Amino acid sequence: MNIPFQKIIILDLGLVHIHIWGLMVALGLLAGLLVTLKLAKKYKISEVHVYDIFLLLFASSMIGARFLYVLLEWDYFEDNLVDIFKVWDGGMVFYGGFLAAVLVIWLYLKKKKIDFWKVTDMMAPGMALGLGIGRIGCYLIGDHLGAKTSFFLGSMFKGELRHEPALYLSVNGFILFVVLWILKDKLKETGALTYVFLILYGIVRFFLDFTRATDLPGLSDPRFFSLTISQWISILLVITFVPLFVKKLRK
Fold first, then answer.
1. What is the pLDDT of residue 221?
2. Domain span including residue 225
C-alpha cells in the first residue's frame, strides 16, 4: 500500500480560487481558537484577551516562520527577493513562528499583568489541534517530501516511495491534542501542561526530521552537523523543560 502523491496548491471553485495551504492554516487557527475559548473560563481569562492573543499569534507566527525559512534558504532568496512574499507556496519553519509568537504574547501578557504560563496552559491543547490541521496543508502542497523509504504509507514521487514528514507531523498534532486534553485536569501546577506540550513535540519532531529528504534540490532542509535547525531547537527544548517538568511533579 502507498499513497499516490498529488500536489494540490489551488482549490478551484469556479469563480473562487483558494490557496489550499492558507485554507488549512486558517482552519487550524480557527480550531485552536475555539478550543481555547472553551478553556478560557476554566483558566479565568477574558475572551477579549483570547481574541487579542490569537490576532497577535497569527501575525507574529506567520512573520517569524517565514523569516527563519528565508534565512535558512537565503542562497535562493537573495536572487529571488519577490518570492519572499509568496507564502501561499509554503516555506515556513514552525519554530521560527513559535518563537516569534512566544515573544510577542509574552510582551502582551506582561503589559496586561496576566500570568504567562497560565495562558500557555490554556492554549496548549488548541495549538496542538491547530498544528494537526495546518500540517495537512503542508502535506497537500508537497512542502516536505521525505527521504526514500519502503514504509507502506509512503508517497510515490517520480517513481520513488518517500516518507511524508508533514503527514506524520499532522498525526502527531492530533495525538498530542488528545494527550493534552486528557492531562489538562490532572496537572494542577501552572505551566506543567505547557511543559508536556514542548517536551513531547520536541521529542517527536527530533526523530521525525530524520525522515526528511536530503537528496532533493530545493526541497531538502539545510543541516548543521547533520541535524536540521528544528532538531537543534528540539534538543534545547527537551533539555530545558524536562528538568522543569520533573520539578513541577515533585511539588
1. 78
2. 17-250
CA dist., res. 143 & res. 132, Å (int): 15
Nearest C-alpha neighbor of 175 from the set 210, 129, 141, 219: 129
Residue closest to 146 by CA, chosen among 196, 76, 94, 221: 221
Can you tell me the distance from the alpha carbon of 40 to that of 119, in angstroms, rounded to the nearest whole number? Answer: 9
Nearest C-alpha neighbor of 248 from the set 198, 192, 180? 192
How much is the pTM? 0.89
Whether 159 is covered by a domain: the verdict is yes
Task: Give CA angle at 119 (191, 195), nearest 5°.
Answer: 25
Q: Is residue 5 part of a domain?
A: no
Owner of C-alpha cell 506540550:
197
Domain count, the chain: 1
pLDDT at 10: 80
pLDDT means per 10 residues in the chain (251 residues)?
67 80 92 97 95 96 92 87 80 90 97 97 98 92 84 80 92 98 94 97 96 79 89 97 92 73
Q: Pairing mode, if any, of strands 3-4 and 155-157? A: parallel
Q: What backbone torsions phi and psi does residue 216 show, to the nearest 5 degrees?
A: -115, 105
**Structure confidence at residue 192 (pLDDT):** 96
Distances (CA, A) of 27 to 32, 33, 131: 9, 10, 10
- The 10 Å Cβ neighbour count of residue 150 is 7
Residue 36 contacts by C-beta under 8 Å, 6 or more apart in sequence?
Answer: 50, 54, 122, 123, 125, 126
- Count the helix, strand and coil residues of the chain and give each as a percent rounded to the nearest 5: 65, 10, 25
